[in-house]
Amino acid sequence: MTYVVTESCIKCKYTDCVDVCPVDCFREGPNFLVIDPDECIDCTLCVAECPVEAIYAEDDVPADQREFIELNRELSKTWEPIIEKKEGFPDADDWKDKKGKRQYLDK
Q: Which H/E stretch holds residue 18?
C-alpha cells in the first residue's frame, strides 16, 4: 500500500508533508504535489502534516477521488522531487476548502 495526494491539494500545495518524509517521495507540479508510489514506505508521517487533509492511504482514498491513485503514479514519473518545505501559494487559504478542483490541476 502507498499514500496518495488527492484533490484538496490542488491550488494549495502546502508543503508541510515534504519536510517529514524520510524517503523524499514527493514530487512537485505547477499547483499540486504527488507521491511516488515506488518510493513511499507507508510511514504515515505526511498524513498528519497536511493542513487540507489531502493525503490518504491508497485503500482509504474516497470513491470520488480514486482517479488520483493513477494520477500520482503517472505524474510522479515526470515531476521533479521536492525535498524541502516551500512557501504556499498566496491564495492557498482561499482554495483549501473548495471542492471540485480537479479541473484546475496543471500538469
A: helix 16-20
Which CATH number applies to 3-81?
3.30.70.20
Q: What is the C-alpha to C-alpha distance for residues 9 and 42, in angstroms, rounded to an integer?
A: 19
- Residues with Cβ within 8 Å of 95's Cβ and at least 6 positions away in sequence, in order, are 10, 11, 12, 89, 101
- Measured between alpha carbons, how far is 65 from 101 in angstroms, rounded to an integer? 11
pLDDT digits (tens, 9 = 90+) for 3-28: 999 999 999 999 999 999 999 999 99
* Domain residue limits, the chain: 3-81
Q: Which residues of 92-106 are buried (b: 16+ CB within 10 A; e: fewer)?
A: beebbeeeebeeebe
Q: Which helix (H) or strand (E) segment is 48 a member of?
A: helix 45-49
